[in-house]
Amino acid sequence: MPDDLVLAIDQGTSSTKCLLVDPAGAVVASGSAAVPIRYPRPGWVEQDADEILGSVLTAAASCLDGVGRGRVKAVGLSTQRESAVVWDKRTGRPAGPVLGWQDQRAQPVCDALRAKGRASRVRDLSGLPLDPMFSAAKLRWLLDRTPDAAVGTVDSWLVFALTGSHRIESGNASRTQLLDVRAGSWSPELLDLFGIPSTALPEVTPSSGDLGVISERGGVLAGLPITAVLGDSHAALYAHGSQAAGGVKVTYGTGSSVMRLGAVDDPRVCLTVAWNDSLAAEGNIRSSGATVAWLAAFLGLSAGQIGQLAAEASSDGVFLVPGFGGLAAPWWDDTAVGLISGLTLGSTPAQVARAAIESIAHQVTDVIDVMGPADCLLADGGAGGNDVLMQIQADLTGVPVRRARTTNLSALGVAFLAGGRTPPISYDEFRPQPGVFSHQRDAWRSAVARARTPHDGSIA
Fold first, then answer.
1. Is the domain defined by 242-451 classed in CATH 3.30.420.40?
2. Is the Cβ–Cβ distance between 232 and 158 less than 8 Å?
3. Intrachain domains 5-224 and 242-451 with the same fold
4. CA 126 to CA 133: how far, in whole Å?
5. What keywords would UniProt list here (predicted)?
6. Tens of pLDDT along 68-91?
7. Cα angle 130, 132, 135; round to 5
């Protein structure tokens, strides 16, 4: 049947995936391409804007190979979020590195604003705690080195590179820390605080609609309309459809995004734009899958082997607090450190592996405790495929965990929005086991307290 497929482009931290999705939500073709990540100094995380664009074109070409172009009616774009991009206004070429969402080099920008007593005002306007994870401080760092340039996030770079229009989707804009989250427009006060000229920024647009037609630079994509753009975590929430109304979505990736529709009045979690005019509360966890990857490399094992060790062991009093570069929600403490506690001469790698898996569930539960009760947790993302983690999560939160059986929720979510349909998805359910887990939670909080350094900038 002609004109019935949507091409979803999911541009993530480590790779770009493309899916061709039919009206029923089935994937009929796919393609992917890796994206290099560089760590030039401790706390610095960089990518290359041209390599990101190249990965999109490569993955799209692979996905569309052998598919009649007449069958593709629209393109949806899901992207990594807070990463900061800079390019030359005249040539349209990248003018510096992409500063990844994990990059910490702009911490001094945040420290200076905090010292001036502006942290609470930034939080009030943007809905976000003052933290270098968000784009504003990174954009300031880039503009200090490339004045009179154009800046944006990954979605705005790709939309510019593919269509020639300097635009940013409202949900991604809300993650920059420059948007007045309730007004849905750039805040003159925040621009002044961070020293960002409005002329450098893209136009804020809705998440869906006529968002541009791809030019010849898009290769196999040329001539296709972009009808939806979402941040990756927002897209995953959208894919859950009606289930999202009473649940909390947890995307288990390199980090984790804990998100629920509607505002939560608590400074320990973020207020963000879910899509278009809908608001959501979100808690961001810096290290989830990254913790497992770190431990695997440290022990000379694979991530799968870490999962196997964890499934066969008890942590037995060992706790791993993954404060690599600080802790995000609900602590927002950039001075926190990584810590393994409870070790004895009898401790084994299997106990530490179990503690690494448990650290993911504990961090998510910390955020849920702040957000308030939920009917269920809606799980997706790579680390969510671990059954042990899902059961621990259900036990610690005391509510069922429903894990999407379908993978690639971010790509599917933006495909659903771009195509104007939200087909239902199916779930595996993990129900809480009988037992009292409060002692584990108390011991976890004690471990977190040991990993933290009290200071005026921390929220709790």
1. yes
2. no
3. yes
4. 14
5. ATP-binding, Kinase, Nucleotide-binding, Transferase
6. 778 899 999 999 999 999 999 989
7. 95
Each residue's pLDDT tens digit, 40-58: 998 899 999 999 999 999 9
pLDDT at 400 over 60: yes
Binning pLDDT at 50, 70 and 90, where does residue 454 land?
A: low
Q: Which of 252, 254, 236, 253 is nearest to 244 (CA)?
A: 236
Amino acid at 380: D
Give the up-direction half-sphere exposure of residue 101: CA atoms within 13 A in the CB hemisphere.
25
DSSP 92-149: --B-S-EE-TT--TTHHHHHHHHHTT-HHHHHHHHSS-S-TTSHHHHHHHHHHHSTT-
Round to whole Å and give the CA distance between 56 and 60.
6
Between 303-311 and 387-397, two packed helices, what is the crossing angle to 10 degrees? Answer: 50
| CATH architecture assignment, domain 5-224 | 2-Layer Sandwich (3.30)
Q: Tell me the domain boundaries of the chain.
A: 5-224, 242-451
**C-alpha–C-alpha distance, residues 286 and 163, integer Å:** 32
357: tokens are 């898996």
Q: Percentage of the chain surpassing pLDDT 90?
A: 77
Q: Which helix (H) or strand (E) holds 250?
A: strand 248-252
In contact, 196 and 148? CB cutoff 8 Å: no
As a whole-number percent, the residues of the chain with pLDDT over 70 amount to 98
Whether the pLDDT of residue 115 is over 60: the answer is: yes
With tokens 């796919």, the residue in question is 30
Whole-angstrom Cα distance, residue 295 to residue 288?
A: 11
Whole-angstrom Cα Rg for the chain = 21
- Report, as an integer, the average pLDDT of 417-438: 89
Q: Spell out the alpha helix ranges (H) of 107-263.
A: 107-115, 119-126, 135-145, 154-163, 170-173, 188-194, 232-239
177 within 8 A of 136, measured Cβ to Cβ:
yes
The rounded distance, in Å, linking the Cα atoms of 13 and 180 is: 26
Mean pLDDT of 443-454: 90
pLDDT, position 2: 53
The residue whose two tokens read 């999705």 is 21
Query: 67: which residues sit within 8 A by CB, 6+ positions away?
Result: 5, 20, 28, 29
DSSP code, position 47:
E
- For residue range 366-393, list pLDDT tens digits in order: 999 999 888 899 999 888 889 999 999 9
